[in-house]
Amino acid sequence: ITEQLPAQSLTEISSQRPDWKQLMPLLEKAGSLLCDMHLHKISHGAFYPNHLYLNPTSGQVFLIDFERSRRCLTAASAVRRDLYQFLKRASVMPVSALEQLLASHRRQFPKLTEQLVNHYHANRTV
Fold this sequence. Notes:
126 residues; two-stranded antiparallel sheet; 11% strand; mainly alpha; globular; 3-stranded antiparallel beta sheet
């Protein structure tokens, strides 16, 4: 199915040394979509850079591979589950791009997002 998507994964895009400033609106859009899911207590379950597809030309954003998605008891548990997974693999993007992706979460879940990001930075290997 990914062969038919008119987009590339964030993993693929990052390997091409993109102009991250150009991708910022798409990252914010993707983060907003994910945050909306979390507000409805839905966890993607496998939110990784290679499951986020972007098309800079059309402005389209796709989240794929929902087979592990599930309803959570709380929105916070959905956030924790997905962002923890993503942050473990976030080295594919600069911090400024990561912050753009997390903008909606910082507004809706400020303390939790800050805790997860601090954990990411404390455990990040360069």
